[in-house]
């Protein structure tokens, strides 16, 4: 079966004032249909670059990047993105922010309204439809951004430290909610994070990248039962062992000159 995402020998060189900057050099990645892959690696190793190539936002200088077996050229259909600094439109209410992807898709306004109401309930924001973004907490704004991403009904989520700016507790809570949502959706996910706990809690497989210029070094299957009880999980020996192994792989990278 073709992979949802297949990246082979990917090379990305950015043009800068000082010449060309090699961000990725020989990166390989495969994401199966319905698979949840977390990507970790040292800062600057090219995680966001890899994700942006899959999102069609950054051009590759060499190698292959395919979705459903087709080369990526521009932003592919069916891809939902959630980034660290996702901005909501400040002048639009929560309800109207979530409408954006539905508006792009066209269709009946009443149907859109019903779908928006349903999505806001899914992310735990019923009752806040009429609020403006500035009237919400950071965690609530993330939920709106998540609802907006869900509105486009993606079959592939590309998430770059999506819950990064939140405090640890809120991040964990939203992460757990996203996990149970994903368990019902079965969407493929590529999830970039610095947080090894978060990576193991969520993913089927944790992929570790090398220091820059990045390539994929190692991967760790997460053989923990689903649905996962996030509150219990991190106290289990299996979780701790995996955490140690991934942390060791990351620390080894930090020492590479
Ligand atoms: N648009 C750009 N132009 C030039 N260089 C860039 C550009 N975007 C990223 N880079 C460089 O490419 C390298 C990889 O950047 P990238 O953002 O992919 O790293 P990252 O792994 O996501 O880092 P972090 O964990 O800090 O988010 C860095 O050295 C960065 O300076
Ligand atoms: Mg990044």
TrEMBL record:
<dbReference type="InterPro" id="IPR003439">
    <property type="entry name" value="ABC_transporter-like_ATP-bd"/>
</dbReference>
<dbReference type="InterPro" id="IPR017871">
    <property type="entry name" value="ABC_transporter-like_CS"/>
</dbReference>
<keyword id="KW-0813">Transport</keyword>
<dbReference type="InterPro" id="IPR027417">
    <property type="entry name" value="P-loop_NTPase"/>
</dbReference>
<dbReference type="Pfam" id="PF00005">
    <property type="entry name" value="ABC_tran"/>
</dbReference>
<dbReference type="InterPro" id="IPR050166">
    <property type="entry name" value="ABC_transporter_ATP-bind"/>
</dbReference>
<keyword id="KW-0547">Nucleotide-binding</keyword>
<feature type="domain" description="ABC transporter">
    <location>
        <begin position="7"/>
        <end position="236"/>
    </location>
</feature>
<dbReference type="GO" id="GO:0005524">
    <property type="term" value="F:ATP binding"/>
</dbReference>
<dbReference type="InterPro" id="IPR003593">
    <property type="entry name" value="AAA+_ATPase"/>
</dbReference>
<protein>
    <submittedName>
        <fullName>ABC transporter ATP-binding protein</fullName>
    </submittedName>
</protein>
<keyword id="KW-0067">ATP-binding</keyword>
């Amino acid at each position: 079966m073709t992979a949802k995402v297949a990246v082979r020998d990917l090379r990305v060189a950015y043009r800068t004032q000082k010449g060309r900057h090699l961000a990725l050099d020989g990166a390989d990645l495969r994401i199966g249909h319905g698979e949840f892959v977390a990507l970790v690696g040292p800062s600057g190793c090219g995680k966001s670059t890899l994700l942006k190539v899959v999102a069609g936002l950054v051009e590759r200088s060499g190698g292959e990047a395919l979705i459903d077996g087709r080369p990526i050229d521009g932003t592919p259909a069916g891809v939902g993105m959630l980034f660290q600094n996702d901005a909501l439109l400040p002048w639009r209410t929560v309800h109207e922010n979530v409408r954006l992807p539905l508006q792009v898709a066209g269709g009946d306004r009443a149907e859109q309204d019903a779908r928006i109401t349903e999505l806001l309930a899914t992310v735990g924001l019923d009752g806040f439809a009429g609020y403006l973004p500035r009237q919400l907490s950071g965690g609530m704004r993330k939920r709106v951004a998540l609802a907006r991403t869900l509105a486009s009904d993606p079959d592939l989520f590309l998430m770059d430290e999506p819950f990064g700016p939140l405090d640890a507790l809120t991040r964990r809570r939203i992460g757990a909610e996203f996990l149970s949502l994903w368990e019902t959706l079965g969407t493929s996910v590529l999830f970039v994070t610095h947080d090894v706990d978060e990576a193991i809690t969520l993913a089927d497989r944790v992929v570790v990248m090398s220091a820059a210029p990045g390539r994929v070094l190692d991967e760790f299957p997460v053989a923990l039962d689903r649905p996962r009880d996030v509150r219990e999980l991190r106290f289990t020996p299996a979780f701790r062992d995996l955490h140690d192994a991934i942390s060791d792989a990351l620390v080894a990278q930090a020492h590479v000159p």
